[in-house]
Design brief:
- Keywords: Membrane, Transmembrane, Transmembrane helix.
- With 142 residues, this protein is mainly alpha-helical.
- It has one domain.
- Helix 4 runs antiparallel to helix 5.
- The longest helix has 25 residues.
- The termini are close together.
- The relative contact order is 0.18.
Length: 142
């Protein structure tokens, strides 16, 4: 992003702001119980519970930081040699964490300021994931 023009920066800011507003509107307008629930006869797997937002915002952030630390450790250990494997891991894990954060923000009791901050960070996360996907396809923001 060192060689990005002013127009690219403006588009990134507009994209971030619009995604943040959409996420905030979704968290405020969608009812908290409007999440797909599995059959009551069995317990759902932990990934499904995580994506549904049952870990609350704090737990979701801790799990996301743990995933990021595990990815960093794998990269430092030389297990993720190619850019493709590293990018796919970041995009897959980041998507799961951002969806879980959205559902946790909807389900939990949050103040309006807390929801605005949460949606701002989520919007930034989605923009970063979009930039990683664009880089995967050989496109750059210039």
């Amino acid at each position: 992003m060192e060689g990005a023009t002013a127009g690219a920066w403006i588009w990134l800011w507009v994209l971030w702001l619009s995604l943040s507003v959409l996420l905030l509107g979704g968290m405020l307008s969608l009812p908290p119980k409007d999440v797909v629930t599995p059959l009551p006869a069995r317990l759902p797997p932990w990934v499904l519970r995580f994506v549904q937002g049952e870990m609350a915002v704090g737990g979701t952030v801790r799990i996301g930081l743990g995933l990021g630390g595990a990815g960093w450790w794998c990269g430092a250990a030389g297990l993720l040699v190619s850019d493709l494997s590293r990018s796919l891991l970041v995009v897959g894990g980041g998507t799961l964490v951002l969806i879980a954060l959205f559902n946790a923000g909807r389900r939990g009791v949050q103040s309006l300021v807390g929801l605005v901050v949460l949606s701002g960070f989520q919007g930034a996360g989605w923009v970063v994931l979009l930039l990683i996907v664009l880089q995967l396809y050989g496109l750059s923001v210039r």
